[in-house]
Design brief:
The chain is an all-alpha fold. Helices cover about 75% and strands about 0% of the residues. It has a single domain (about 1-155), classed as Ribonuclease iii, N-terminal Endonuclease Domain, Chain A (Orthogonal Bundle). It has 8 helices and no strands.
């Protein structure tokens, strides 16, 4: 519960349904979590991936009015790749708040860290979308990726 409150502070959003937040923090390696709970976490990640892509695409469309379709695609691909999203999640401090299995805790490089954190970020955004709808999810995505957008626009 304490970790969940910490996540809410990080993203500046209070969940109405705490179950959604708990599910968003589940990593596939978590030992004491049922297959059903892990499957629901994966569904949140799938949904969050789509929400992030929509939010990023819309923002790029707004801030790059003369960009070609190809340029918009490349910019979105950069902003939504595992390395970018995983790095953003790491900077937010999300990693220690995830429900992970002992094997991953003992050997943190056993898996692709960026992929793990990107998936966690996607799950979190999916949970926010279900709990608070698109405006809340949009605000969190744009705030989290603010520096990446700024870098993209720098000459």
């Amino acid at each position: 519960m304490e970790d969940q409150q910490e996540v809410e502070k990080l993203i500046k959003y209070a969940f109405r349904d705490q179950t959604l937040l708990r599910r968003a923090l589940i990593h596939a390696s978590a030992d004491a979590i049922s297959k059903e709970e892990k499957a629901l976490a994966k569904r949140l990640s799938w949904l969050g991936d789509s929400v992030i892509n929509l939010v990023v695409a819309h923002r790029l469309f707004e801030i790059l009015p003369s960009a070609t379709k190809g340029a918009l695609h490349e910019a979105r691909k950069h902003l939504t790749k595992n390395k970018t999203l995983g790095g953003t999640a790491a900077e937010m401090g999300l990693e220690p708040l995830l429900l992970k299995g002992e094997s991953l805790k003992k050997d943190p490089v056993a898996r692709d860290r960026y992929r793990m954190l990107a998936t966690a970020f996607e799950s979190l955004i999916g949970a926010v979308y279900v709990d608070g709808e698109l405006p809340m999810a949009r605000m969190i995505v744009l705030r989290a990726l603010e520096e990446e957008f700024r870098t993209l626009l720098s000459p």
